Records
---
Amino acid sequence: MADPVEIKVRDHGPYKVTGPVRLIDPEGNELEVDPERPIALCRCGHSQTKPFCDASHRESGFDSCVRARSLDG
Ligand code: FES
């Protein structure tokens, strides 16, 4: 069985996605990504290259540190 895709939430930054993924726009068209490299998806909303991160989060002061919590409550 193949390793699952990993999505890592970066502090004050993007989602880093590692693994073979298909990235599809709302019209069903596939965005080109290098299958051998992780991709960074914008989480702050300020990127000029959405859905990809362009490091604008650094200038925008985006502040978010997500930590896992138990689903049990
Ligand atoms: S998370 Fe990097 S530009 Fe938005």
Note: The first helix runs from residue 57 to 60.
---
Amino acid sequence: MSIDASIPTWLHDLPKLELHVHLEGSMSVATVRELAARHDVDTTAIWPDGLPLAFSFDGFPSFARQFFFGLSLLRSGADLATITDDLAATLASQNVRYAEITTTAYTHFLDRGGRSGISWGEYREGLNEGRRRAAERGVEIGWVIDIPRDLEMPDQTVTIEYLESGQTPDGLVAIGLGGYEVGFPAAPYAEHFARARAIGLPAVPHAGETEGADSVRQAVEVLGAVRIGHGVRCLEDPSLVDLLIDRGIMLEVCPTSNDLLQVVERIEDHPLPELLAAGLRVCLNTDDPGWFATDLVTELAIASELLGVDRAQHLAMQLDAVDASFIAPEIALALKTEIVDYPIDA
Ligand SMILES: [Zn+2]
């Protein structure tokens, strides 16, 4: 494969959108340091030698331990506004114009360590403030609120009741299903997702990341998924691939995440080329950019330099991601025009 030396600059300048990025996963080391200082929290229980330059993991459990520590630092609406604005600054610096950002309301509402959780109203106001600041940076945000499948059991209804309450943030576009798939199947959440659809929220669950094709099929057939977070293991079942193509369901693919959480053995072995060759709709994303020390330009560059994606495919994926998003029509039109006008040989 020949290396295109100008590709990082071209990818940076390309007007972009991102559809799979977690607000609580966007915290950088700098943000963790800032919030720990704000709340006078000692970080040595997790990082005995001090905060690292970049976070590192050896699988999902080790990732989760650090992730939940970061989560414990989010204690107010102001903290949520801070991390939204930090994420928006990173997105703006990469020419990302629109992002659908997943946030896990449930984890903020819980009482933690003797502290009461954030109230529904404060959660909404914090996200609204962060979204307002993001717009000033030129980044439009659509929110996805997800059910954490390994924390909120199917007999709990915290998230769906919140979604139905009318106290949700401005720009809410969809419901997700996050958390660890192994041992936590999608099908028991059928009722939650039916209720979400009834109030106009489409389903964009995670599936086919740490579990196989069956998990993706449940997400589609039981939850009514219109996009799938990850879904890379759909290739294990050709009839499922046909189903995804027939229904035009886009996969939100996150190469670095799959590498660090050991969904793939080596990033060079990532199945992105096979997904594209199969005719599946695919967009590229960061998942948890702070924790994984990545950004969207890096993910697109990995696709170019290690996985053989060319410029025309990048342009097609960005345009297709606009169509698979829940972006307001006037912003969609402006963004598509910019992408179409972007010179392929700049
Ligand atoms: Zn995710």
Note: The first helix runs from residue 7 to 13.
